[in-house]
């Protein structure tokens, strides 16, 4: 029987293999190991070393005198310190990280924000820059008007201010560059795939702005010509078709990079974008698995040169 | 379907995109996402299929039983559908949350296959009035990523196509009761004729007069109302159903019924 709409009988084993190979390649690139030598991958419960003189780092524990891994990841050794870094991890949070989050609840003087972590983070009213420009203490009217600023479902770009003992993240948006995000589209990828970068918001040369949240939430939006006075008013102007095509292509490129476990950074995204245009793929073609693989391989090759 | 919340800005972006003819992932209004179908996974069932459309994942199994037919239909076999929304598929399916969706899906499938033109149930008859084959189709929703009805109907068709029923021979009569022999030969199997089996196509109304096919969960959040059309390969419409709270203008409805199969699967 012919399935004309592009369906193919697909083995799900292949998908797991592809992801594992992608992770191995990514780790090799990060750790700086040659192609021939594999980084040592361990699974939870696997014995790392029998030597008790090694210091135990993150991801390991001692059991009956031997050092055992507690997470699935690769082993790194620095002098006498052995650590196991997990391949993929839920977002733990680090002070100073820029993250993209979605408001889930509006409470008395704070908002609860979903940041792709174990717990919803907290954004206090006192930690945001109130509209009006001037610095002032927030009063009772501000508490009542919280929903006018940020309501359930809104996307915000904020900074991690503090990590509490139980893992709860405290967020802040005290800068003009943080605040409510305007029209665009959100992607969720694994936070382990986002490259560490001081600057998270990038205006890409193709004509779109991408916010690479450290928590794995990537937001693609059209470039704003000038900064708005208050970042809590959303621009509802219709986005033109050309910009939409760029955003759609970027979105599909980021998705395919994440699918093949390639680290996501402005460089890798722009390389994938240029490759897809060079090979004349239509935006919706980038949703097909064979096209995704072609572009991913081309990106990796191009980045290795 | 899965409940996700979007900001007003995201919704506006999606809706404007549909008006301009380009969706968030670059698809046009009537394009499907990547479809993957795998059959023959569950060896203990007579037929099985797993369908993945975008993020939506469903598993269908078909089992055959021999039973006495109801008195009003002595010469026809039967198909029974049972849908289970696994709690893994979406958070709101926890406990009994998925029951409403499961009931509406099985009712939809019953109506889809109710026409004798879609599936010839007389071929499932073994001894008229005494024994007929009954196909129990079990649908398991593994992941809910938008456009559930289409995926389930495609899976049911694939599973029925993959169904292999051992041939049954009537060996003799013993005091009024017939004796049967079920063939052990794996080559001697009966198949179900699915050449006319229908599938469901969902049209989601996002904005005035415009519908989209194969919506993602984000698009489903923007459009309140959808119409599901069951159509056979020859173009015969077996069932239609409107879901959700909203209205459909007559011209929008007739437009979606006129082109229910934009990229014909089979």
TrEMBL record, chain A:
A Gene Ontology BP annotation from the UniProt entry: regulation of gene expression
- Name a GO molecular-function annotation: RNA binding
Give the chief site where it resides: nucleus
Locate the coiled-coil region(s) and give their ranges: none
Classification via Pfam families: ECR1_N, KH_6, S1_RRP4
Does the keyword Kinase feature in the UniProt annotation? no
- Tell me the ranges covered by the S1 motif domain, including all copies: 96-174
Q: Where does this one sit in the cell?
A: Nucleus
UniProt keywords (A-Z) are: Exosome, RNA-binding
Q: Origin, by domain of life? A: Eukaryota
Matching entries from InterPro entries are given as: Exosome_cplx_N_dom, Exosome_RNA_bind1/RRP40/RRP4, KH_dom_type_1, KH_dom_type_1_sf, NA-bd_OB-fold, S1_domain, S1_RRP4
Please provide, in alphabetical order, the Gene Ontology terms of the cellular component aspect for this entry. cytoplasmic exosome (RNase complex); nuclear exosome (RNase complex)
Task: State the PANTHER family in the record.
Answer: EXOSOME COMPLEX COMPONENT RRP4, PNAS-3 RELATED
Which family does the entry's similarity section mention? Belongs to the RRP4 family.
Please identify the protein, giving its name as recorded.
S1 motif domain-containing protein
Source organism? Scylla paramamosain (Mud crab)
UniProtKB/TrEMBL annotation, chain B:
Cited Gene3D superfamilies: GHMP Kinase, N-terminal domain
Q: Which UniProt keywords apply?
A: Cytoplasm, Exosome
InterPro entries given in the database record: ExoRNase_PH_dom1 (IPR001247), ExoRNase_PH_dom2 (IPR015847), ExoRNase_PH_dom2_sf (IPR036345), Exosome_comp_Rrp42_subfam (IPR050590), PNPase/RNase_PH_dom_sf (IPR027408), Ribosomal_Su5_D2-typ_SF (IPR020568)
**Taking every annotated instance into account, which residue ranges of this chain make up the domain Exoribonuclease phosphorolytic?**
32-166, 198-256
Q: Please provide one cellular component term from the Gene Ontology annotations of this protein.
A: nucleolus
Identify the Pfam families for this entry: RNase_PH (PF01138), RNase_PH_C (PF03725)
GO-annotated molecular function: mRNA 3'-UTR AU-rich region binding
Q: Which residues cross the membrane?
A: none
Which GO biological process annotations does it have? exonucleolytic trimming to generate mature 3'-end of 5.8S rRNA from tricistronic rRNA transcript (SSU-rRNA, 5.8S rRNA, LSU-rRNA); nuclear mRNA surveillance; nuclear polyadenylation-dependent rRNA catabolic process; rRNA catabolic process; TRAMP-dependent tRNA surveillance pathway; U1 snRNA 3'-end processing; U4 snRNA 3'-end processing; U5 snRNA 3'-end processing
The residues forming the signal peptide are none
Highest taxon in the source lineage: Eukaryota
Instruction: Name the predominant localization.
Output: cytoplasm
Which cellular compartments is it found in?
A: Cytoplasm; Nucleus, Nucleolus
PANTHER family xrefs: EXOSOME COMPLEX COMPONENT RRP42, EXOSOME COMPLEX EXONUCLEASE RIBOSOMAL RNA PROCESSING PROTEIN
Q: Which family does it belong to?
A: Belongs to the RNase PH family.
**In its UniProt entry, what is this protein called?**
Ribosomal RNA-processing protein 42
């Amino acid at each position: 029987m012919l399935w004309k709409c592009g369906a193919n009988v697909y083995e799900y084993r292949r998908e797991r293999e592809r992801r594992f190979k992608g992770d191995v390649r990514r780790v090799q690139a990060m750790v700086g190991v040659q192609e021939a030598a594999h980084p040592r991958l361990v699974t939870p419960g696997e014995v790392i070393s029998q030597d008790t003189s090694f210091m135990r780092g993150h991801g390991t524990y001692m059991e009956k005198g031997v050092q055992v891994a507690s997470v699935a990841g690769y082993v790194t050794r620095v002098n006498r310190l052995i650590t196991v870094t997990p391949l993929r991890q839920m977002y733990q949070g680090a002070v100073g990280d820029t993250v993209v989050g979605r408001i889930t609840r509006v409470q008395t003087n704070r908002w609860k924000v979903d940041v792709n972590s174990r717990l919803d983070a907290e954004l206090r009213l006192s930690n945001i820059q109130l509209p009006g420009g001037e610095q002032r203490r927030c009063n009772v009217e501000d508490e009542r008007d919280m929903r006018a600023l940020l309501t359930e479902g809104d996307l915000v770009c904020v900074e991690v201010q503090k990590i509490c003992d139980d893992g709860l993240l405290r967020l802040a948006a005290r800068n003009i560059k943080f605040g409510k995000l305007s029209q665009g589209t959100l992607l969720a990828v694994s936070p382990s795939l986002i490259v560490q970068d001081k600057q998270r918001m990038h205006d890409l040369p193709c004509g779109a702005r991408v916010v690479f949240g450290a928590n794995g939430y990537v937001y693609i939006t059209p470039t704003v010509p000038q900064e708005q006075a208050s970042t809590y008013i959303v621009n509802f102007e219709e986005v033109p078709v050309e910009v939409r095509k760029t955003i759609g292509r970027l979105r599909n490129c980021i998705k395919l990079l994440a699918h093949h476990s390639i680290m996501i950074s402005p460089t890798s995204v722009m390389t994938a974008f240029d490759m897809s245009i060079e090979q004349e793929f239509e935006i919706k073609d980038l949703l097909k698995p064979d096209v995704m693989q072609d572009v991913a391989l081309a990106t990796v090759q191009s980045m290795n040169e | 379907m899965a409940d996700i919340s979007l900001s007003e800005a995201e919704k506006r972006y999606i809706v404007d995109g549909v008006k301009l003819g380009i969706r968030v992932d670059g698809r046009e209004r009537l394009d499907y996402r990547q479809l993957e179908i795998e059959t023959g996974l569950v060896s203990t069932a007579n037929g099985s299929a797993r369908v993945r459309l975008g993020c939506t994942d469903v598993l269908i199994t078909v089992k055959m039983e021999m039973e006495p037919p109801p008195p009003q239909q002595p010469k026809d076999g039967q198909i029974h559908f049972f849908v289970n929304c696994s709690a893994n598929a979406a958070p709101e399916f926890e406990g009994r949350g998925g029951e409403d969706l499961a009931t509406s899906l099985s009712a939809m499938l019953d109506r889809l296959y109710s026409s004798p033109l879609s599936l010839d149930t007389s071929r499932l008859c073994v001894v008229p009035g005494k024994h007929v084959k009954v196909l129990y189709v079990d649908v398991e929703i593994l992941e809910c990523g938008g456009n559930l009805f289409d995926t389930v109907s495609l899976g049911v068709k694939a599973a029925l196509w993959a169904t292999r029923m051992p041939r049954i021979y009537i060996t003799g009569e013993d005091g009024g009761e017939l004796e049967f022999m079920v063939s052990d030969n794996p080559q001697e199997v009966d198949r179900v004729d699915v050449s006319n089996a229908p599938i469901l196509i969902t049209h989601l109304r996002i904005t005035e007069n415009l519908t989209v096919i194969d919506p993602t969960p984000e698009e489903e959040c923007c459009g309140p109302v959808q119409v599901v059309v069951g159509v056979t390969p020859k173009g015969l419409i077996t069932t239609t159903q409107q879901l959700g709270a909203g209205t459909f203008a007559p011209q929008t409805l007739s437009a979606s019924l006129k082109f229910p199969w934009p990229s014909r699967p089979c």
